[in-house]
What we know:
InterPro entries: GH, GH_1_N_CS, Glyco_hydro_1, Glyco_hydro_1_AS, Glyco_hydro_1_beta-glucosidase
Structural class: alpha/beta
EC number: 3.2.1.21
Family: Belongs to the glycosyl hydrolase 1 family.
CATH topology: TIM Barrel
Strand content: 5-15%
Number of helices: 15
CATH class: Alpha Beta
Largest sheet: 8 strands, parallel, barrel
GO molecular function: beta-glucosidase activity
GO biological process, one term: cellulose catabolic process
Strand order of the largest sheet: 1-2-3-4-5-7-10-11
CATH superfamily: Glycosidases
Distance between the termini: 14 Å
Amino acid sequence: MRFPADFAWGAATAAFQIEGATRADGRGVSIWDTFAATPGRVLGGDTGEPAANHYRRYAEDVALLRSLGIGNYRFSLAWPRIQPDGTGPGNPAGLDFYDRLVDELLAAGIEPWPTLYHWDLPQPLEDAGGWPARDTALRFAEYAAIAHRRLGDRVRTWCTINEPWVVAFLGYASGEHAPGRREPASALAATHHLMLGHGLAAAAIRGQGATTTGTRPGTPAVGIVLNAQPIRPHEGSVADLDAARRVDGVRNRIFLDPLYHGRYPDDVRADLADVSDFAFVRDGDLTTIAAPLDFLGINYYSPASVTGAAGKVDPELLEPAGDGPSRLVGCEDVGVLRGAEPRTDQDWEIDATGLTELLLRLAVDYPGTPLYVTENGASYRDEVADDGAVHDPRRASYLDQHVRATHAALTAGAPVKGYFVWSLLDNFEWAYGYSERFGIIHVDYDTQRRTVKDSGRWYGRLAATGAVPPLAGSD
Length: 475
């Protein structure tokens, strides 16, 4: 099984999860610094220190990327490192760090893919209202312009927002993520302002024109990254079909329809009428949001099976409902099935068919845009063995299945142009702290020693050749 020669193979990370150095060189406080410092919010009381200390060890990490033959690196810029208060001029030391990182990547022959926002909102902006406040979207566009002015002579590809559903619904509805608010109506306002922020940032980057200076002049490519998810009815009943429609609305279409059609779906607005009247949408907003994308990034981990008759299903088959507002605003009565075995050590269902299904659905329902799998991976709590290696056959098998699922979608006609494994390094896994390991490179947090896992070597062979290599122990 072989991929096209120009297929982009990459690895992905996020600033707060790997950089550490949270007080270094003028970096400001983010909502995740505040959230992690609040007792009971993060497993084990873990914080963004030391993470993988990438801020000081970035050259070593780039060298590892190069040694594995991975030609693309998706990372995020820390907004509080560039604008400590979320406003004003750029912090020279913070911008200098990303200068050095981009230069190091290019010298190694690796394409940089920065993401402007991967969840680390400067705390002063949250204090002023956060993403439910319209002003945050305006400040985000200013930050995007600062980053592009500094790096745009060398960076060709820009991701604006990573997983706005997580930011809005886990951050402002269920409170599972920073800033930990439980305000369903605010989650919907945050959804709109995240999408508006994307549109304004894209306009700011494009408005600065094609780069004519630096080492790599050219027109920037701008896209957004969604964690869209296949939503499947548990059975064929009317109740289950309607539950799937409703969940698909607040999980997928509330983002995809504004991007591609310049509107929020009528049925979604009707379903959410008791929560919000969508008065936060102003004239011109949807036109800004719907500016053509150069690409769409998709982060995929699992599908979801839902039922509208949760009371008739064995409770052991359902995901726990939790003790606060639902992350699925307007779908509080919907039951989510646990899904089949096998599962990762993080207890996430493994179903690679969902990736093929999702990519083909996007190709049919939202055509015309190149698609990239910008995150895909699995957490297994692997350790360094006595022989000094990290043997993680389950992760290698997981990646093999999902790479093949990507190929199936490509063969069936989906315009898939690349795949990025999550994650390059073991890291701070948000509310799970350091208890979960997604990396294809193991990090010893006490010594910061890096060890390439067996899955990393397997993925490196794939990235270097474009052909799916055999798994260890297979023919």
